[in-house]
Amino acid sequence: MKAGLIGLGAMGQGMARNLHKAGLLAAVWNRSRPRAEALAAETGAQAAADPAAVAAAVSVLVLCVSADADVLEVIDALLPGAHPDLTVVDCSTVSADTARAAAARLATRGVAFLDCPVSGGVEGARDGTLAIMCGGSAEAFERARPALAALGRTVTLMGPTGFGQATKATNQILCAGVIQAVAEAMAFAKAEGLPLDKVIETLGKGAGSSWYFVNRAPFMARGSYPAGFRVRLHDKDLAICHDMAARHGAQLPIVEATRIHYRRLIATGHGDEDISTIVRLKDALFSGAGTPR
């Protein structure tokens, strides 16, 4: 198997390196070419001229881009290089409707498609321990399995096209609630003057722990929020959740509250920080300021 990867952002770079470690990576492409050239120099993979060149060179093509429009743009761009032995694996987080549209466009060339959004943060992308939720046919899933196994520890076929993205939307609702709770708890601990390192070490092994508490409470303690899962991107994902829920006539209170908080953070210049920056708003509850620092 030869695999390619399009989209060398915070997640894509780690994913490409794990494909390389598995002996699968043959070609990469990124909108910013210097990033692709650097990764190619590191791994020996081809820095392809365009998405079509990646498609022509591989049997499994992994996408990891930011938004719905980006996915469809890349799908259209790779079509000239598409061939019947190609399976496209989209690890972006987009709507289920976009996944189905991508699958339909590729089907015109006889190309299989899997929507395979991931969870586990930049750490999971780096370490090859992502949780990958997949939508598509069982045949396409089996063909892509070696590449998926290089990227994640938990890889599950959820159902037909779109089911991967619906599962990821479920995950993003969980993330919204958990990051709110973690930030509120950390702001409370700070206000009480507790030793935050001991709080994290002890409660990280308690009943209220979570991935976000263990991995992002330290950001909150340090007051440093390096771009992991950016506020802007989670807000985009929660907009997808909002729209999906609206089709059922439902409104999701946690989603709506988190989006209000995110809009405040974006307006005050924190949209490109990790979502743990929401603690700024929680800290303000105790300072009486009412606005993030």
Which terms summarize this structure?
Rossmann fold; three-stranded mixed β-sheet; N-(1-d-carboxylethyl)-l-norvaline Dehydrogenase, domain 2; 293 residues; alpha/beta; 13 helices
Structural write-up:
- This protein has 293 residues and is α/β, with parallel strands linked by helices.
- The chain has helices at 10-21, 33-43, 51-57, 68-78, 96-107, 121-127, 138-151, 163-191, 196-203, 211-222, 231-246, 253-267, 279-287, and strands at 3-6, 25-29, 46-47, 60-63, 87-90, 112-115, 118-119, 130-135, 152-159.
- The strands form two sheets. Strands 3-2-1-4-5-6 form a six-stranded parallel β-sheet, sandwiched between helices.
- Strand 1, helix 1 and strand 2 (25-29) form a beta-alpha-beta unit.
- The model has no long low-confidence stretch (mean pLDDT 96).
Q: Write the CATH fold name of the largest domain.
A: Rossmann fold
Q: Which strand order do you get reading across the main beta sheet?
A: 3-2-1-4-5-6
Overall pLDDT score: 96
- The count of strands amounts to 9
How many domains, as an integer?
Answer: 2
Question: How much of the polypeptide forms β-strand, as a percent range?
Answer: 5-15%
Largest sheet: 6 strands, parallel
- CATH superfamily of the largest domain, please? NAD(P)-binding Rossmann-like Domain
The number of distinct helices, counting runs of at least 4 residues, comes to: 13
Shape: globular
Helix-strand pattern: EHEHEHEHEHEEHEHEHHHHHH
What is the name of the CATH architecture of the largest domain? 3-Layer(aba) Sandwich
Radius of gyration: 20 Å
Distance between the termini: 50 Å
- Structural class by sheet pairing and helices: alpha/beta
- Poorly predicted runs of 5 or more residues: none
Residue share in helix: 55-70%
CATH top level assignment of the largest domain: Alpha Beta
